[in-house]
Design goal:
The complex is a heterodimer of chains A (about 260) and B (about 190).
Chain A: H1 2-25, H2 32-40, H3 54-62, H4 76-86, E1 97-101, H5 122-127, H6 144-148, E2 154-157, E3 160-163, H7 173-177, E4 183-187, E5 192-194, H8 202-208, H9 218-223, E6 227-230, E7 233-236, H10 247-250, E8 256-258
Antiparallel strand pairs in A: 1-4, 2-3, 5-8, 6-7
Chain B: H1 2-14, H2 25-30, H3 35-64, H4 73-95, H5 97-103, H6 106-109, H7 114-125, H8 130-160, H9 170-185
Classes of the chains: A alpha+beta (about 260), B mainly alpha (about 190).
């Protein structure tokens, strides 16, 4: 009886002392700033900053390897607090970017070549003869981006993915997930977009979709440099101001929309 | 030598800890969604099991046996293993940071894993020697790693499949684990 008590308490005591000594002599000094910055970041661990998680990013910020404004979910107040904690001049928040699906060819507007009845994943659908959608560049609508989105900001509308910009946390997971590569990051402040990714010539686009870019170049003239042609596809250059209100009405392909 | 090979084969394939003895099921289901995390977990389990077996053998042999305190096995082992893992974590953090960051969060997670305790108790039951205990523990860890890696591969495939609504998520994972366990039953009789 006595021995058992002694042995168990002895083991406990030895372990306790060993741990206490370990904590005292083996501890690695960590910059307390890292903890402070980690707390100020949201802790969503979304990876949009390019680091594995908020902890890794905080370490890089404190080490001076990364600017503190890479976190898209960080509020301006939190950013100011981080700058203050680091003792550096306040850094302006980078312009917020949101994901945009460059296709509006839904089930009513775009044609399908066959009935796809396989695994519900865009990559799988694309592997079957190039996908059921007649347009090679169109949104397949099997929700791969929707499942990749950690913020629940993507909705399928009539067979085409649509990002709700107010919910988007700019993590770019959908951009990487889309097998067609038609999701692009655009400034949240821009509202006029060209919703088409097709590089096919105009005649081909017309045959398969009612809302595709036919490469007519009308918008390039109206936009005064803010829209450029990439082959037969008109692309918005978001660095230039695009404020022509007539654009959506003037587009013969009906693929320019103000949202 | 032959006896060691048989010991290893037995621990890895025939009496696989996860699929045949059903120990360590929580990390088996918990961290098997991604190959990366499952590899980290596997490494941590092999490491902790081997070290824990060595430490618990010493505790059993030099402390519990001489005083006839065999009935205190469970509590003494848990106490020692938990403290030991914490200490190892500190040592690694200080002296081998790459290994520490590779094993990361998984190291403290498995301090009180039933598979780790299971190995310690089994070694006592089998009356194994020191070397035998350590080898057995390492092999058991490798068996865990094997099962976890296979299971992760299966789960990554299932993620892309389209099971009926009622089966989605954990349900289909449990069914898969059962089938995998059945497959491992095929090794029965490999080592007599």
């Amino acid at each position: 009886m006595i021995t058992s008590i002694l042995v168990v308490s002895g083991i406990g005591l030895v372990c306790g002392v060993a741990l206490a000594l370990g904590a005292r002599y083996l501890s690695v000094e960590e910059n307390p700033l890292i903890g402070t910055v980690t707390e100020l970041l949201l802790g969503a661990n979304c990876g949009a900053c390019g680091y594995a998680g908020c902890g890794g990013y905080a370490q890089a910020i404190v080490a001076g390897e990364a600017p503190p404004n890479r976190c898209p979910s960080c509020t301006p107040e939190a950013l100011a607090q981080i700058s203050a904690a680091l003792g550096i001049a306040p850094i302006e928040a980078a312009a917020r970017e949101v994901a945009l699906v460059l296709c509006r060819g839904d089930d009513e507007q775009a044609q399908k070549r066959f009935v796809y009845d396989g695994i519900t994943a865009c990559a799988a659908a694309a592997a079957v003869g190039g996908g059921d959608k007649a347009c090679r560049y169109g949104c397949l609508g099997y929700g791969t981006c929707l499942r990749a989105c950690p913020a629940g900001a993507i909705e399928m509308v009539n067979g085409v993915a649509r990002v709700h910009p107010e919910l988007c946390i700019s993590c770019r997971k959908c951009v990487a997930a889309c097998p067609r590569g038609i999701i692009r990051m655009v400034p949240a402040a821009s509202h006029t977009h060209i919703f088409c990714s097709s590089r096919d010539p105009g005649a081909t686009v017309r045959k398969v979709c009612k809302v595709g870019c036919i490469g007519c170049r009308i918008c390039t003239r109206l936009a005064e440099g803010a829209i450029t042609m990439d082959g037969t596809l008109a692309v918005v250059d978001y660095k230039q101001p695009l404020d022509n209100e007539e654009l959506p009405a003037k587009c013969p392909g009906k693929c320019i929309l103000k949202v | 030598m032959t006896s060691y090979i048989l010991l290893v084969l037995g621990a890895v394939l025939v009496n696989n800890f996860v699929l045949n003895r059903f120990l360590g099921i929580c990390p088996f289901l918990g961290v098997s969604k991604k190959l990366e995390t499952s590899l980290g977990m596997s490494g941590a389990v092999i490491f902790v099991m081997t070290c824990a077996a060595a430490v618990t053998w010493c505790v059993d042999h030099y402390l519990l046996k001489p005083y006839g305190l065999d009935y205190l096995q469970t509590i003494a082992f848990i106490l020692v293993i938990a403290a030991f893992v914490q200490l190892v974590e500190m040592l690694l953090k200080r002296y081998v940071p790459p290994l520490y960051s590779a094993l990361g969060i998984y190291l403290p997670l498995i301090t009180t894993n039933c598979a780790v305790l299971g190995v310690a108790v089994m070694n006592v039951q089998n009356k194994s020697g020191f070397v035998e205990s350590t080898v057995f523990a390492c092999a058991a860890g490798c068996g865990f790693a094997l099962a976890l890696t296979i299971f992760t591969g299966l789960r990554e495939k299932i993620e892309r499949a389209d099971p009926p609504r009622a089966f989605r998520g954990v349900a289909i994972a449990l069914v898969t684990a059962g089938l995998l366990s059945l497959a491992f039953m095929g090794f029965n009789g490999l080592v007599k």
